[in-house]
Amino acid sequence: MIKKVNEGVEVNLIIDGVNLANFKLKRYFKNTGVNLYLFFRTYIPLFNVRINYRDHRKVTIIDNRVAFVGGMNIGDEYLGKGKIGYWRDTSVKIYGDIVSSFEKEFYFSLSIVKNKYLRDEKISNEISLKYEEDDNVYMQVISSGPNYEFPAIRDNYIKLIQEARKSVFIQTPYFVPDDLLLDTLKSAVLSGIDVKIMIPNKADHPFIYWINQYYVGELLRLGANIYRYENGFIHSKTILVDEEVVSVGTCNFDYRSFYLNFEINLNIYNKEIANSFKTQYYKDIAISKKLTFNDFKRRSIFTKVKESVCRLLSPIF
Questions:
Q1: Which residue among 104, 186, 196, 235 is the active-site one?
Q2: SS in 3 state form for 272-303?
Q3: Catalytic residue among 89, 178, 194, 242, which?
Q4: Is 63 a catalytic residue?
Q5: pLDDT digits (tens, 9 = 90+) for 88-133
Q6: pTM for the structure as a whole
Q7: Which domain holds residue 71?
Q8: What CATH number does residue 188 fall under?
């Protein structure tokens, strides 16, 4: 980034302000020309009423021509250099007019951190949930956050699942659906839809493994196909429906992403692209362990207690 600034490129970087390490990063970039902003920066966490409202979006926009969106963060840990090992993630590279929708979202965040309304016409218009077509690929940007009256991405997931006729393939590191989303998935399984859910076999938080286990168990007993990814940690957030529609982005299947975080996803309505996601999904299945209901039934009492306790705490994760 510093190199690009020295070449005359304007570089704007927004990072979430809850991590104290970000202040070291701010000092590092001082006087480099990189415009670094902390989103809802937190000096004293216990006294910050916005501590729960985090910017979880991961978007890169280049010259308003190219955008990247997905689950990938920037850091050595996400390159497989941390304790958890290899990270399996999914991001997409986008060209065309749809990039302007991501740019609007970026400048919306910038208006928050600068605490002022940005009046440039191209970024101040209200962002709408609309379809855009580039090279015969229909796409839709969907954002959600505490500034929205409804959980738009969660509602998008529910709509996609309700409209499924054959299959629903999900990848997520955190599977903590609310009641409505869980009931929608249960209905899909009972309707004969091929529901596959892939979660990590490793967890980056001690509670997550048991929370995931509780919720996938609810679907496993009904006939859903559940897989634990074994080649490291799966951080991908995708849902593939009927091999026709895919939603990829930053939103996990959990309360925090649905109701508290600022998130962004991209729906892609294209069979060829959807098929590439299906191909990758089956590659991931090949290095995953399929859970069986018999294994699930043989859980110890201690395991069941841990799952139940973590289930009670799930809304805070």
A1: 235
A2: HHHHHHHHHHHHHHCCEEECCHHHHHCCCHHH
A3: 242
A4: yes
A5: 999 999 998 899 999 999 988 888 887 765 555 444 443 344 444 4
A6: 0.87
A7: 52-316
A8: 3.30.870.10
